[in-house]
Specification:
49% of the residues lie in helices and 13% in strands. The chain is an alpha/beta fold. The chain has two domains: 145 residues, Rossmann fold (3-Layer(aba) Sandwich); 81 residues. This is Haloacid dehalogenase, type II.
Length: 237
């Protein structure tokens, strides 16, 4: 008999937060809306690629802002559109990095958290790569409430390394079959499933832009188009 679910862990940016709108707003006004959106999506993917490379090389956890600034500089150096590089002054770069600290929640998230916490009586946590300061700023700007914020900076490991999930479970005194990971990132859920957690994929158009969604659907315990009904799905585990 399966153990009852006690806790739900959420990836943060992309899964719970609309990072795309914040970054698009902070980009130079000389860019078209299409250029801004494309730039934001590709910069975000470049950040994921940099973290994957860092994890594969066994590098230490890096401050989120430092990573984003470095990735932004590298991304601009590689961009084929040389006409836009002059738009990114040091002040613009500072504004863009700061924009990651102020995001709004997707409209379905607040109610999903309320149902899990108040109706289902489950513990809810953020478990995300990034810094603790970043997460504190984001819960304030988004108006969301969790029982605890776990960052890669705090844990000393990046997802999807198994040590990241294991460290949080040890701190919370929870077993893997008592936990559910919710994310819009297939790699996060692959790591969670590898340590024995249940996994729920929530599709967000801003994330996993390279993933085959049918493959993702088959790889997880549940696949949702949004967080409506998340509590019922978790109750079925």
């Amino acid at each position: 008999m399966a153990a009852p679910i006690k806790a739900v862990w959420f990836d943060f940016m992309g899964t719970c937060l609309d990072w795309h709108s914040s970054i698009v707003t902070a980009l130079p006004s000389a860019l078209s809306e299409t250029e801004k959106s494309t730039f934001a999506l590709e910069w975000r993917q470049a950040y994921f690629d940099a973290n994957t490379k860092r994890l594969a090389e066994g590098g230490p956890v890096e401050d989120f802002d430092d990573t984003q600034r470095r990735v932004l500089d590298d991304f601009l150096d590689r961009t084929p559109n040389l006409d836009i590089k002059h738009l990114f002054s040091p002040e613009v770069k500072d504004r863009l990095v700061a924009a990651w600290h102020h995001q709004t929640a997707w409209p379905d998230v607040s109610e999903a958290l309320r149902r899990l916490k108040n109706d289902s009586k489950l513990e809810v946590y953020v478990h995300a790569n990034g810094s603790t300061r970043l997460q504190l700023d984001l819960v304030k700007s988004a108006g969301l409430h969790y029982d605890m914020l776990f960052s890669s900076e705090l844990l000393g490991f990046y997802k999807p390394a198994p040590e990241s999930y294991q460290a949080t479970m040890k701190l919370l005194k929870l077993k893997s079959d008592e936990c559910v990971m919710v994310a819009a990132h297939a790699s996060d859920l692959k790591g969670a499933k590898a340590v024995g957690m249940k996994t729920v994929y929530v599709y967000r158009w801003t994330d996993d832009i390279r993933e085959d969604q049918e493959v993702v659907r088959m790889a997880n315990d549940a696949y949702l188009s949004d967080m409506h009904g998340l509590d019922r799905v978790i109750a079925s585990f």
